[in-house]
């Protein structure tokens, strides 16, 4: 045990730590490990009964499946470093032999090369633009004139290019899938940030974001980080308030338990940041960003279909309930497809009939046996899937969201600098927050 009961705090006795970390997703776990390894007394307060946050490897449909974050890549430096550190392995997702897409109201089928040719004019232009506007991907606010483009949505952007209707519709659909939200609310600058992180190469981006998964699951990586360093982990601890005074902060959970700390790291998803009562109150920009919400509002679901299905990929515009489908595994002679849609409010991830209906937009030859997924939008501890910015949110909020608030630092994939929205971004932000806390604990004279 690293914590020590301390003296008084008014009439109450409270556990006291150097640092309280709120949330045991990748951002919180990495921040806690870094600080604990440097000898600080750290406790992680996690609302759920498990670690991993928006990554969750769970037994469904006959095998272990990822309900949330899945794909990782060596192009993502922070997660790759963790993979190396803990001896994790990756494996490729199946390569598609055919692509199904919908344009002009009808379904089409072609080779991956034909599909890439259809989207290449729009994607090439966006990739070129990303190199112009984000010459240093890890300094997303490097250019001071980003307000010239930050008001545009992905839909606005493609509408402004000289594309054939089918090219525009299909390319926009690909980005709606990337955002897990409708193209009309998806920020063009966020799309460019993704491309810039992949060195302005959209095919590399696609490989990096859906090509390789962790062989033993995200749970194995999260577990390895949690077991390192010796930070104390308290599951089932829903933080209700953070109250600061001159000596630090008191973090209180919903059952009334208080914990004292000199520094706090808050890793809450942006959409639930407003659920904690901060005293003094959070600055207006942080609260406004949380109230505005991220662009992501979709679903991820797993579909078990009868028999072995050769690998394919399917895309649809965001007017469809599912925008992306692909086989990932076979189990007992059946195939497990992974699918995404942009509006969880219209299609729940465990709605067998609704998912089967949506799948028929591309293929009526597949017999759906069962579906399973987690609804991150109605989950009180996320209320978003992977964080994606809306128009204007980059220039309005990112810098303010990364700012500390007294003794409270912020971390999380929502406010990452590089691969924001990814496991990588969560880790990057956890490292950044832990460094700031170490500096603060050392004091002004180091
Ligand atoms: C469906 C889906 C698919 C995705 N696919 C990919 C992918 O393929 N590749 C990829 O890299 N990324 C993917 N992501 C994104 C990635 O999973 C996340 O960006 C990343 O895991 C977020 O980590 P985090 O630590 O910032 O936040 P979280 O993981 O959300 O951690 C925050 C923690 O805070 C806890 N919490 C919330 N409220 C409280 C409270 N009041 N008190 C205490 N604790 C609280 C939460 O329970 C949670 O554990 C996906 C996400 C989803 C949802």
TrEMBL record:
Protein name from the UniProt record: FAD-dependent oxidoreductase
Assigned protein family: Belongs to the flavin monoamine oxidase family.
Residue sites binding substrate per the record: 340
InterPro entries, A to Z: Amino_oxidase, FAD/NAD-bd_sf, Flavin_amine_oxidase, Flavin_MAO
UniProt entry keywords in alphabetical sequence: Oxidoreductase
GO molecular function: oxidoreductase activity
Cofactor(s) required for function per UniProt: FAD
Keyword Oxidoreductase: yes
Domain (Amine oxidase) ranges: 26-437
Any matching Pfam family: Amino_oxidase
Source taxonomy: Bacteria, Bacillati, Actinomycetota, Actinomycetes, Pseudonocardiales
Residues reported to bind FAD: 46-47, 239
Residues spanning the membrane: none
